[in-house]
Amino acid sequence: MLKEIFNKPTKWSAMKQLILKEVDDLIIGSLGIVSFISFFVGGVVAIQTALNLTNPLIPKFLIGFATRQSVILEFAPTFISIIMAGKMGSFITSSIGTMRVTEQIDALEVMGVNSLNYLVFPKIIALFLYPFVIGLSMFLGVFGGWMAAVYGGFTTSFEFTTGLQAEFIPFHIAYAFIKTFVFAFILATIPSFHGYYMKGGALEVGKASTVSFVWTSVVIILVNFILTQLLLS
Amino acid sequence: MIEVKNIVKKFGEQTVLKGVSTRFEAGMTNLIIGQSGSGKTVFLKSLLGIHTPDSGTISFDGRIYSELSNDERRELRTEIGMVFQGSALFDSMTVEENVGFPLKMFTNKSAKEIKERVDFVIDRVHLVNAHQKRPSEISGGMQKRVAIARAIVNNPKYLFCDEPNSGLDPKTAIVIDNLIQEITQEYNITTVINTHDMNSVMEIGEKIVFLKNGLLEWEGSNKEIFKTDNEAVTDFVYSSELFKRVRKMYLEDDVK
Question: Does B173 lie in the same domain as B144?
Answer without folding.
Answer: no
